[in-house]
Design brief:
Layout (H helix, E strand, L loop, with lengths): L30 H6 L7 H32 L1
């Protein structure tokens, strides 16, 4: 069996820790939080963006239907 060439006191791989390997500062969720979803609270900014997207889609659909209706009226 081969023995390691590194001294016993050092680690073989010595590199800086990547950002995705670091621990998060947020509190850890428990199993009950995962199952019950008690800690999932909608963020005010996220809900505002969601409403703006919905309003934008509705306005785009109204504009598209107006264009189609105008073309149908002109074609007659």
């Amino acid at each position: 069996m081969k023995h390691s060439q590194t001294p016993e006191g050092r680690s073989r791989f010595n590199a800086p820790v990547r950002h995705y390997h670091r621990t998060d500062a947020r509190p850890r969720r428990t199993w009950d939080d995962w199952v019950d979803g008690t800690s999932a609270k909608p963020d005010a900014a996220k809900s505002r963006v969601k409403i703006i997207k919905i309003v934008g889609i509705v306005l785009a659909l109204l504009a598209l239907s107006g264009i189609i209706a105008g073309l149908i009226i002109e074609m007659r």
